[in-house]
Amino acid sequence: MSPTPSRELHPDQPSEQRVAVIIPARDEADRIAATVRACRSVPRVDLVVVVDDGSTDGTQDHARAAGAVTVRHSVTRGKASALETGASVVGMRDYVDGPARLLLFIDADLGDSAAACSELVSPIVDGVADMAIAVPPKQVGAGGRGRVVRAARSAIASTTGWAPVAPLSGQRCLTRRAYEAGAPLAEGWGVEVGLSIDVLVAGMTVIEVPCDITHRVTGNDPAGRLHRASQYKDVLRAILGRRLRRHRVPSKAFDEAVRKQSPFHAYRAWTGPADSAA
After folding, report:
1. Which of 40, 103, 166, 250 has its CA 20 to 30 A from that of 17?
2. What is this structure's pTM?
């Protein structure tokens, strides 16, 4: 069902920042309802949007029954397209006056643990960062050897100076301005790497936050290896596209930030292109 465009009235307390959750989902009928309910319990969340990306099961019906606004892609378009659709829906439902909602990206398979992503909201509301990224505990049963993670971390570090703990984490809270810095989003599984680079190149601040979340892991079976190969390809595509455009923070600008960075502290490489002229 396509959402009806609407512009909501401004809340009674204009100073209270609201948050919209966006959940891209494909064939997640077994978990989506629990994820939606957990997201609705997060303080400041007043809108949960599930984008059903071409599911063949009852994902959309379960999400709607749990209280989400739903929109469906008739064919699978990929995670980036689903997030962009969700952001558009939120934009249509934002308040006439006052601040745009913060966007909280949540993976569909988190289930009840999605409530722990409430930890991502405070750094944005308090002005500590423009984008907060969840760092989950080590997931039991994961079959990868870290190749994709290392490639993503290395690319982000060489481009912006920042060496994230969880460069592929999909759980992110960000301002509308930070989202627009990354739009159009990198395709496929390159979304997270692209966002991290784009937000930092734009002169904004990121922070990682430990969150006690659990999700479905990919094992070392053929399906798991195929998934990681696809993920690796998309990450490399996002990296290469930015390198070809020379989309990066000049190393002279982030030298000082690199020396001062530490895990779980806010990081900003520079204040934007004006730094390069200084």
Report:
1. 166
2. 0.88
